Amino acid sequence: MQTFEIKEEFLVDGKPTKLISGAIHYFRMTPAQWEDSLYNLKALGANTVETYIPWNLHEPVEGIYDFEGMKDIVAFVSLAQELGLMVILRPSVYICAEWEFGGLPAWLLKEHVRLRSTDPRFMAKVRSYFSVLLPKLVPLQVTHGGPVIMMQVENEYGSYGMEKEYLRQTKQLMEEFGIDVPLFTSDGAWEEVLDAGTLIEEDVFVTGNFGSHSKENAAVMKAFMAKHDKKWPIMCMEYWDGWFNRWGEPIIKRDGQDLANEVKDMLDLGSLNLYMFHGGTNFGFYNGCSARGVLDLPQVTSYDYDALLTEAGEPTEKYFHVQRAIKEVCPEVWQAEPRRKTFSSLGTFPVQNSVSLLAVKDQMMTAQETMYPITMEEAGPGYGYMLYSVNLKNYHHENKLKVVEASDRLHLFADGSLQTIQYQENLGEEVMIKGTPEKEWIELDVLVENLGRVNYGFK
Questions:
Q1: 332 tagged catalytic
Q2: CA distance 114 to 297
Q3: Of 34, 76, 289, 458, which sits with the fewest C-beta atoms within 10 Å of its C-beta?
Q4: Choice among 98, 100, 154, 156 that is catalytic
């Protein structure tokens, strides 16, 4: 059985080992893609794969859990082991990851709990989730013959809060449910967030998140550890090799040779996890959103990330730049040609007919009747679209109307006719509406679209 320890270096079976890892999110691709992506990671020269585990994906409705199909974390980890990869898991309740609400379930918003805190109501929800998730992960640990060498307590908590007791309680829950591999936190590489987001005083391993200036960032981490009498190895848990993209903004790219040069610097200093190795796709309504200034900035459905593999899993020029860089620093690593994809056209399928949502709304859904509007989270799972309908008395002249406390984007209809589309810049502006002359009532419909809850920022 393999062993893993964190001393002044990472020790695998007692031998000093540099962790060369890549992020592959099992939930951002179909299970049919897993093997090729994992193989290509190994062919790069890596020995480890890392993935987040999003709470909202596995408990979409409170008390109802789903670990089937593309949500089968156990199958993904087992496949990685078959291919000879070690695994780093990040089952923290918050993941950021440009994922809807940072992985927190939308149903938490129904009870106005203090998120990521020792609020007893929040920690009770965490306990319930961990009581289902963690027993599935226990047999996968290296201490039980599995490939999992480390697990994350919390993610970039230093950029959010300073409540160390919350981190302690989370750590204690993980240990209570059988997690006995080394635990870690990951934060930006500056002293303030390292101070706030780590449990270094309780021997929880400290990692950093950055994608450039490796020498400078490593020096900050080393100094922080030395201040606490730790001589741990330096590890960048998220070495950003590209970037995510937001609606309406240019696609962000990173030069492959520039990345390769930085990877060499980082490997000279310690270990790294390439974030992302294979980005994949934000399926459904699971894209996240950043809070910046007065506007929210939703991310796009693609999570290509300008990673080493394309969204579809095809090796890029950047892949080969990094592969060569790894070989230069670690000449003993095993490498191989990556697997390629065969693409085919599925043809074109023209849309022949369409129908208005308002014309079929009564056949599509069962209305919930309430005296006052309720939130998307109160009404159901909390994703997609919410249609509010009401009949207003027709006074046969124009009237002012204002929709207050709406978020993201709305379409407003009067008697089936579109009156306005309001987005973040003009939500809440007054609209003049007038009903159909021969009708006693105005049928008002407001379609609200959820573009993604904030996964990072002040909201």
A1: no
A2: 23
A3: 458
A4: 156
